[in-house]
Amino acid sequence: MTRFPQVEVRASHGGHGVFVLEPVTAGARILEFVGPRVGRDEVERAAAAGVGDGFLQIGEDEFYALSGGPDDFVNHSCAPNTHIHCVAGQYFLIASRDIASGDELYFDYGVTQIAFPFRFHCLCGAANCRGPIGNYDEIPAALMNEYRALGMVPPHVEAALASDA
Ligand SMILES: [Zn+2]
């Protein structure tokens, strides 16, 4: 039975973020995404209505909506310390490297997104910050190769990359 590390949701970047309250080892599961799964039509409706995006894409037309838990609040960074990993149909946030107690958790939203109806302008301040964040195919090839080598690309985007090739 996996014990997830303790996390805390608190103010960050003018909104909320998720922080670990204990050190986490590279490869460890940090949390599971548990929101209801919805289709593209619901996400498109939210985008058209100008409702805030809180969707995590897990298939070309499949998404997690908000759960009400900490999985709703993990912020994006262009230099992330976590990534999304699928095990037997469950989606987990995984430590991409060792993470110190008190650090905020980030993943690269772009690596999950295919024709995603929301965009935002990143201000993460990383040396390689991409600015506007959209879909997987906007990520520079060298960075995507690095993500793939580290197992940081979820299955639906790996499949899209395979069909692009
Ligand atoms: Zn950035």
Total domains: 1
Query: What's the number of extended β-strand segments?
Result: 12
The CATH architecture assignment turns out to be Beta Complex
Enter the CATH topology name: Beta-clip-like
Question: What is bound: which ligands?
Answer: zinc ion
CATH homology-level superfamily: SET domain
Give Rg in angstroms. 15 Å
Q: Provide the low-confidence segments as ranges.
A: none
Mean pLDDT: 95
> Structural class of the helix and strand makeup?
alpha+beta
How are helices and strands ordered from N to C? EEEEHEEEEEEEEHH
Which sequence of strands runs across the widest sheet?
A: 3-9-8
Q: What is the helix tally?
A: 3
Strand portion, in percent? Answer: 25-35%
State the shape.
globular
State the name of the first-level CATH class. Mainly Beta
Largest sheet: 3 strands, antiparallel
Bin the helical content. Answer: 10-25%
Descriptive report:
The protein has 165 residues and is of the alpha+beta class. The protein has a single domain (7-164), classed as SET domain (Beta-clip-like), CATH 2.170.270. Helix content is 17%, strand content 28%. It has helices at residues 40-48, 141-149, 155-164, and strands spanning 7-12, 15-20, 29-32, 37-39, 56-59, 62-64, 75-76, 82-87, 90-95, 106-107, 120-121, 132-133. The strands form five sheets. The chain has a three-stranded antiparallel beta sheet, with no helix packed on it. A hairpin with a 2-residue loop joins β1 (7-12) and β2 (15-20). The longest helix is centred in the C-terminal third of the chain and has 10 residues, at 155-164. The protein is globular and about 35 Å long. The termini are far apart. The model has no long low-confidence stretch (mean pLDDT 95). Bound molecules: zinc ion. Zinc ion (ZN) is lined by residues 77-78, 122, 124, 126, 129-130.
